[in-house]
């Protein structure tokens, strides 16, 4: 358990993930009914971008730094960028902090974080928000007991560190088990795109489990070294995803490009045949 998200906070993959997360939350909150948000791998909540770890990689400057410098970002990013701009300078909000920034009195957040120091930092980061419950726990183990949540409306974010070679398989298995118990939930699964064959196996596994309504949002910033491409698999995404996020994704790929071949793609995957 060596992974520290501070090295990567605010990079292109975070901007994509967090932009989509906040846009989806805003979409779901158009209805008054209570929502449950479950963050299985939550991190520490607030990241100090002036810390040596963040400065060492410089990833935030090429990600959120570039986006904040633009005068006219796409409207789909507004919920996310409003929250980032409200943070103290040189700090970046992680997923549970963003959720805490959007939560309404009737909503609830459950955030699992296995690393004791990160979990303690997360408790401090969300201390003022009574709707958040932080569990110092394994998100994969806890998820089956957290779904379906009361009211059966809301979303699950699964954002593991990919330290283990079999993390895509663990992600697929954890998600499929949760989806069996709560098929109408909205799911966001983050993944790095490094090994195309492993990724195809991951998609095949989801297809064999007959998961309907899957969408892929992918971004490749054409980075010469290190992680260049990442994406999210969304299940039960809002119907307006393609119309609103196709231009937003293209804008993000252009704005955060690190090479001439940066690209983005939004794909709605064919579901199982109607029975
Ligand atoms: N979701 C966060 C965000 O968007 O701001 C970033 C999370 S980071 C990619 C992954 C986190 O998962 C790390 O903080 C790591 O300590 C934690 N972690 C690793 N294994 C875990 C597990 N089995 N259950 C819960 N958390 C875990």
Q: Please, could you describe this protein's structure?
A:
This protein is α/β, with parallel strands linked by helices and 275 residues long. 40% of the residues lie in helices and 19% in strands. The chain has 10 helices and 10 strands. The strands form 2 sheets. It has an 8-stranded mixed sheet with strand order 5-4-1-6-7-9-8-10, sandwiched between helices. A two-stranded antiparallel ribbon has the order 2-3. α6 links the parallel β4 (108-112) and β5. α1 runs parallel beside α5 (95-102), α1 (12-28) packs antiparallel against α10 (241-255) and α8 packs parallel to α9 (196-208). The model has no long low-confidence stretch (mean pLDDT 96). The site of S-adenosylmethionine (SAM) has 20 residues, from α7. S-adenosylmethionine binds at residues 3, 5, 17, 39, 41-43, 94-95, 112-115, 118, 138-140, 159-161.
Descriptors:
single chain; 275 residues; alpha/beta; two-stranded antiparallel ribbon; 10 helices; 10 strands; binds S-adenosylmethionine
Q: SSE string, helix = H, strand = E?
A: HEEHHHEHEHEHEHEHEEHE
Bound small molecules, which ones?
A: S-adenosylmethionine
Structural class: alpha/beta
Work out the helix count.
10
Q: What value does the average pLDDT take? A: 96
Strand content: 15-25%
Major sheet strand order: 5-4-1-6-7-9-8-10
Radius of gyration: 17 Å
